[in-house]
Amino acid sequence: MLDVAAVQRALGAEGLDGWLLYDFHGSNPIAAKLAGLDSGGHMTTRRWYYLIPAAGEPRAVVHAIERHNLDALPGETIVYAGRRQLDEALTRLLRGMRRIAMEYSPDCAIPYLSRVDAGTVEAIRRRGVEIVSSGDLVQQFEAAWTATQLASHRAASEALYRIKDRAFAAVRAALASGAPLTEYALQQQMVAWFEEEGLVSDSPPVVAIGPNSGNPHYLPTAAHGRPIGTDQVLLLDLWGKRREPGAVFADITWVAVTGRTVPPEPARAFRAVVEARDAAVALVEETARAGRDVRGWEVDRAARTVLERAGYGDYILHRTGHSLGETVHGNGVHLDDYETHDDRRVLPGAGFTIEPGLYFDECGVRTEINMFRDARDAVVTGPRQMEIMTLGSS
């Protein structure tokens, strides 16, 4: 249940008059989850609004044929049917509001947050109301992990590391015996291990050898799975969560070479991504322990500065990290000043990846770990890879 009193305290701290949740036909899953409409049992085919003011009782606007959808939430309900009634209801809903938060991102800077359509924004602004981003409110009341979710993440993380170890062992055994093994065959073995571990995911893992590892979102198929040969870079990216309600994801990437030694160029590039990763970790740890704010773009900048100074600026293709939640890309802060400028704070309860990578024609290297920030500290929730593994026979 949405904690209205806590939301009102947050609104007061931010100097906002209210937070307006709005959805039409599933267009705003953030609002639907906060309102308790994401678990089935409700038809949501019409526009609804739920305003939490900084002071006073909340109020809702719902369509007559779905008038009971928000009954579980406190406050007055205004029912409409026709479009003129909706226009009047919206005016009544916003009376006294000057500055409100919505799932809106100026210039769509943060697409994960930009859920309210332009027409609805126009209708609200026409009533003299300023709209600001609800980004940090969403982090506090939708994206922050509970203790139970943190435990589910740690369990998922431990399972992913076991699967990663089994996958590299399977490659090592195939190389030693000369048995054929393709990216796709290894991926499908890993899918079966996910099932054994009780994990679910929205995609099978990335298994990428040689040039394919230079494509951050490469996925092998039965028709196009490359053979895993010797003396090439092998990248594994795997993410999953426990098969239980409310569980949150873990997401890791590890790199190996299918030979006895690591060639100099991949080794140098991997050292750079390790240093970039650890610079980002250090910034999050230091600011959490000091009780200072740090924003997503600042953490990204700390990592990318390391890579740029090492001469790798042209080989960066993505941000440093993303929010983790009940979906693998959650609704919290992303570590991004590259693809977007994420100015949201890394708040207590935030879980996220740190995953700098470099991508070349011949191969790609990436290290991906997960972090959790609590009220007084920030912790890495699994082992960190410090150098590229070797899988060749000794």
Q: How would you characterize this protein structure?
A:
The protein is of the alpha/beta class. The protein folds into two domains: 4-142, Creatinase/prolidase N-terminal domain (Creatine Amidinohydrolase, Chain A, domain 1, 3-Layer(aba) Sandwich); 144-390, Creatine Amidinohydrolase (Alpha-Beta Complex), CATH 3.90.230.10. It contains nine helices and 16 strands. It has helices at residues 4-14, 29-34, 83-93, 118-125, 135-143, 147-177, 183-197, 264-290, 296-309; strands spanning 18-23, 48-53, 59-63, 76-80, 99-102, 130-133, 199-200, 206-209, 233-242, 250-257, 350-354, 357-359, 364-366, 369-373, 378-380, 389-390. A hairpin with a 5-residue loop joins strand 2 and strand 3 (59-63). The longest helix is centred in the middle third of the chain and has 31 residues, at 147-177. The protein is elongated, with a radius of gyration of 24 Å. The termini are far apart.
How far is the first residue's CA from the last residue's CA?
58 Å
Low-confidence stretches: none
Helix vs. strand class = alpha/beta
Mean pLDDT: 96
Task: Detail the topology: elements first, then pairings.
Elements: H1 4-14, E1 18-23, H2 29-34, E2 48-53, E3 59-63, E4 76-80, H3 83-93, E5 99-102, H4 118-125, E6 130-133, H5 135-143, H6 147-177, H7 183-197, E7 199-200, E8 206-209, E9 233-242, E10 250-257, H8 264-290, H9 296-309, E11 350-354, E12 357-359, E13 364-366, E14 369-373, E15 378-380, E16 389-390
Parallel strand pairs: 1-5, 3-4, 5-6, 10-16
Antiparallel strand pairs: 1-2, 2-3, 7-9, 8-9, 9-10, 11-14, 12-13, 14-15
